[in-house]
Specification:
Elements: E1 7-11, H1 17-26, H2 52-64, H3 82-95, E2 105-107, H4 115-121, E3 126-131, H5 134-145, H6 149-166, E4 172-176, H7 179-195, H8 201-210, H9 222-227, H10 232-245
Length: about 250
């Protein structure tokens, strides 16, 4: 592998990770061979832009830790266990396929829960944290997976908190789902500048034109969170992340 710093796209499920991954791919981010990317599905007709080799590996890591994306396992101090070192060797084999491709990265909401594992391979990895109002995430998961709202909100908190706990502010950029419907051009440019991916304004305009922003079905604000009586820790975490993302 080269010395290029990879880009990890993370965030809670249903938070716009696919949309952001597609936009970055259009701007030159290599995500792997086409046949390795998960195909579109009824719940995500514009595509997942998720490399299935990484997704399978992430699932195995979570399984080894005794959980899954919908049941986050405790992770403190467990990254040097022999069974995880074996998976690290497998990860390095997968990463050989990205040699010579710059910039490159991978997208998977599961990244949120195993960032310490990723950083054991790439200590300087840059993280794009996709943020969405927790009520929108909960409604989307209720429709797709029939999850209770309480479970979805708990998962939203776990995924986002673990990213913040695993990264320093200078290692990550938080990008809010809502901003792309307000000013896609400016937000995409902000993310690209953080990642140091040079892109022309013409290409950014092509990205704006190709974005299927009409796929959005519902929108909530922080006031809706208050009205729904979500817990203070979830509300405060959301406000803190919105502040870091520059979204009011």
């Amino acid at each position: 592998m080269s010395d290029a710093i990879p880009i990890c796209i993370a965030g809670m499920h249903r938070s716009g990770t696919s949309m952001v991954a597609k936009l970055l791919h259009l701007c030159g981010l290599y995500l792997g061979q086409k046949q390795d990317l998960m195909p579109p599905a009824p719940d995500n007709p514009d595509g997942f832009w998720e490399n299935m080799k990484f997704m399978k590996l992430n699932d195995e890591i979570l399984n080894e830790l005794g959980g899954g994306w919908d049941c986050p396992p405790p992770i403190s101090g467990r990254w040097d266990e022999e069974r995880l070192l074996r998976l690290q060797a497998r990860a390095e084999a997968v990463l050989q396929e990205f040699s010579g491709h710059e910039p490159w990265g991978w997208k998977d909401p599961r990244n949120s829960l195993i960032l310490p594992f990723c950083k054991s391979l790439f200590p300087k990895v840059k993280v794009v944290l996709c943020l969405r109002n927790p009520l929108e995430v909960a409604l989307s998961l209720h429709r797709r997976n029939y999850f209770s709202y309480a479970l979805s909100l708990t998962l939203w908190r776990a995924h986002n908190q673990r990213i913040l706990d695993s990264t320093l502010p200078e290692q990550r950029i938080i990008t809010h789902y809502d901003v792309y419907f307000h000013d896609l051009r400016a937000e995409l440019r902000r993310v690209l500048d953080f990642l140091r991916i040079p892109v022309s304004e013409d290409l950014i305009e092509q990205c704006r034109s190709s974005a299927k922003l009409d796929l959005r079905h519902h929108r909530f604000t922080a006031q809706h969170l208050l009205a729904a009586n979500v817990s203070a820790d979830i509300f405060n975490l959301y406000v803190r992340m919105c502040t870091e993302a520059g979204w009011r």
